[in-house]
Structures are given as structure tokens and as C-alpha cells.
Design brief:
binds beta-D-glucopyranose; 13 helices; 12 strands; 14% strand; 4-stranded parallel sheet; 381 residues; 6-stranded parallel sheet; alpha/beta
Length: 381
């Protein structure tokens, strides 16, 4: 089965990446950054991280995260902070409550406060212009973290997971689970995508849709609501509540007398909205539901059979890669990238490092999430 092959390949790669990254365990919620003071303290935080690097001496790294409301960003911020402190940097970690103005002023402060490199996971890819101009004027390199920063030449590098591959994994899962190449169908499907202001969201949706389009065109997959374009299925802010109310409307308008067989959701926060809507508003056969991130609530739902799969993006792997990039930049070394063609931000193609996403479901979550130390078994109870 295709998905099984994919799973083992991707899993193997991820385990190797984890080993190479020397990942420590950390699933704690992020806390505001204490200033790093000593390498000793740092080594205690992440025991298996190498000793502070010479280039870190006295250097400060700004880390701007979008929000604490979604689980993954807490883990991203937490991991970045731990890894940077362990490498000997001072860290200024800020969360912006999904408020673009707040993120803008936080990044401006990072420039004003003399950060040597700034790492940004943008709330809205195109809204940081002024802060980026300030960073460029002060010669401060900017790394776009997870989400590409658009329309600016001030972004030096981009580190993320392969966003298109995330969608491909979801789409292939559906093909496999319904045996679409052999089954007659038709099967009913709905789509829920992400935030239009997040450049990743289109990649996720297109990755999945490109796999499924053929079956939609053949009539094996029937989009009963008729909503099958990114704009029609997007979820502003990736909000669970927004995904839920749209799903409730779709269910009450289209599914009172039929089953929905698949709900292709781009990530876990939107999948949770669909799962809530199904619980409140639907009596038919329970659909296949996709997700991304392996958030705790969604992993519990996978275990309980309420979500079929997710895509694991190990924030420890991404954090390690970005810390490595920071060191290479400050040392004047060649920066590791593995993609120099895909991520055009409207002004330039940003040299990128793409980490590999991993298929996750109820059959492998123990191995990839618990045995790897990402979560404790108790967190998933
Ligand atoms: C990230 C996803 C996440 C989503 C909502 C995207 O940019 O890549 O992992 O689910 O934002 O936070």
C-alpha cells in the first residue's frame, strides 16, 4: 500500500533527523524568554545539545511567534528558546496574540534592542514591511520561520517543513483509505483549508487537491457543497470556531440525508472545528478526517477514532535547523539550504531549508510521538 511505504520512508528519515538533531524532550507550553546568562544554565536545559558555540558569544537572537493560542507555536517558541540558550545566545522570544500590529512593534523593538538575527513566524506574510525595512537598514539578517515572509527582500533565509508534501500526504491517505483506484464510489468529500494570509495554506491545499483532482474530475469524489477552491474553503486565522461554524452550515445544508465520506482538513485546529461540528450536527457515517501538527487534542481524537490521521512536524527538528542557520550566518559560513527554487516571495526566491513532514495515525503515534519524547503518554490520556 502506497501510504505504508510513504510512512516508513518518511518515518525513517524523521528518526534520522531526530538523531542528528540530538533532540531533547520538550512539549511544555512556551514561557516568556528569560535572558540567557550562562552556558552552564543552558547545558542543564538541553543536555544533549553541544556546548555553546564561539559565534554565539554576546549575540542576541529575536524570535517572533504568531500566537500562544495554537499549541504548536508554544512548542516552536519553547524549542527555539531552549536550543538558542543551549548554544549560548541571548534570546528575545515574543508572541503576538495573532495581532499583526503587535507583531510589527515586537519586531521593531527587536531591531531597536540590537538583536543580531531575527527569526519570524509571520502572522500575515505580507504585513511586516516597516519592521523588515528597519532590520535591513540595520543589517540584521531575518529568517522566515515555518511561514514565508512575502514581498520583501529583507528576508535572508526560510526554514520550514515541505508544505506541499504535507498536502500530498493527506491526499494520498484519502486515495488509499477509500481505495480510489479500484472502488467505484462516488464518495462525498468536503474541504477545509487554512488562513489566506498564510503562504503555507495554499501549498497544503494544493498538495492535497493535486492528488485528489483526478478523482473529483472522474466523479469518484463528489464535493457536495460545491466548495472546492482554496478561497471558498479557507479559514481566516486557522480558527477552530470558524471551521466549526462553516462545517455546521455545510452539514445542515447538504448532509441531512446523506453521508460525508471524507473531510479533508489542512491542519489540526481546523479539523477540530469539523470534529466538533460533526458531534453537534450529524448522524451519518463518520467520515475520514485529515489533519496536521499532531496537536494533543487531535492526537487524542485519533486514538479515539474521531480523526483518521495527522501530519507530524517535529518542532525540535525545525528549531535545530534554524539554530544551525543562525550560527552559520553569524559565522559567515555557507548556510545549509536544500531548496532554491520553490519559495518566491514576490520579490525574490528565498533560499530555503525544508524539513520532512511525517505521516501519523493511531498505529504509529506511540513510536513517533511518545517514544521520541515529544509527548509523554500521560499528556495523551
Ligand atoms: C503551520 C501549520 C499550522 C498552521 C496554524 C501554518 O503556518 O505550518 O503547522 O497548523 O499554521 O497555526
Amino acid at each position: 500500500m502506497k501510504i505504508k511505504k510513504l510512512t516508513s520512508v518518511v518515518l525513517g528519515a524523521a528518526m534520522t533527523a531526530m538523531m542528528l538533531a540530538g533532540c531533547g524532550s520538550s512539549a511544555d507550553a512556551g514561557t516568556p524568554a528569560p535572558a540567557a546568562t550562562s552556558g552552564t544554565e543552558a547545558t542543564t536545559t538541553t543536555p544533549d545539545t553541544p556546548a555553546p558555540a564561539a559565534e554565539a558569544n554576546g549575540k542576541k537572537v529575536g524570535v517572533s511567534m504568531p500566537t500562544k493560542d495554537l499549541q504548536r507555536w508554544n512548542q516552536d517558541g519553547d524549542n527555539m528558546q531552549k536550543e538558542l540558550i543551549a548554544a549560548g545566545y541571548e534570546v528575545d522570544l515574543q508572541y503576538a496574540a495573532n495581532d499583526v500590529q503587535q507583531q510589527l512593534s515586537q519586531v521593531e523593538n527587536m531591531v531597536a534592542n540590537g538583536c543580531d538575527v531575527i527569526v519570524i513566524a509571520a502572522i500575515e506574510g505580507s504585513s511586516l514591511g516597516e519592521a523588515l525595512d528597519m532590520a535591513a537598514a540595520a543589517n540584521i539578517p531575518v529568517i522566515a520561520y515555518d511561514r514565508l515572509i512575502m514581498n520583501s527582500d529583507a528576508v535572508s533565509y526560510y526554514a520550514t517543513f515541505d508544505n506541499y508534501m504535507v498536502g500530498t500526504i493527506q491526499g494520498k491517505y484519502v486515495v488509499d483509505a477509500l481505495d480510489l483506484d479500484n472502488a467505484d464510489g462516488p464518495f462525498n468529500i468536503e474541504f477545509t483549508a487554512g488562513d489566506p494570509g498564510d503562504n503555507n495554506a495554499g501549498y497544503f491545499f494544493n498538495g492535497a487537491y493535486d492528488v485528489l483532482k483526478k478523482y473529483v474530475d472522474e466523479g469518484k469524489l463528489n464535493v457536495v457543497s460545491g466548495q472546492n477552491t482554496f478561497d471558498a474553503v479557507a479559514t481566516p486565522g486557522w480558527k477552530t470556531e470558524t471551521a466549526q461554524s462553516r462545517a455546521e452550515n455545510i452539514l445542515s445544508s447538504n448532509y441531512t440525508d446523506k453521508d460525508v465520506d471524507v473531510w479533508l482538513c489542512s491542519n489540526d485546529s481546523t479539523a477540530l472545528g469539523v470534529e466538533n461540528a460533526l458531534a453537534a450536527n450529524y448522524n451519518g457515517k463518520y467520515p475520514i478526517i485529515t489533519g496536521q501538527d499532531c496537536d494533543i487534542e487531535n492526537t487524542k481524537n485519533m486514538i479515539a477514532g474521531k480523526q483518521s490521521m495527522s501530519v507530524f512536524k517535529d518542532t525540535r527538528t525545525l528549531a535545530s535547523q534554524v539554530v544551525k542557520m543562525v550560527g552559520q550566518i553569524l559565522n559567515g559560513e555557507t548556510v545549509d539550504v536544500n531548496d532554491t527554487t520553490t519559495y518566491d516571495n514576490g520579490v525574490k526566491v528565498v533560499p530555503s531549508f525544508l524539513c520532512e513532514p511525517i505521516f501519523a495515525d493511531a498505529s504509529n503515534y506511540e513510536k513517533i510521538l511518545i517514544e521520541s519524547g515529544y509527548y509523554t503518554a500521560d499528556q495523551l490520556k
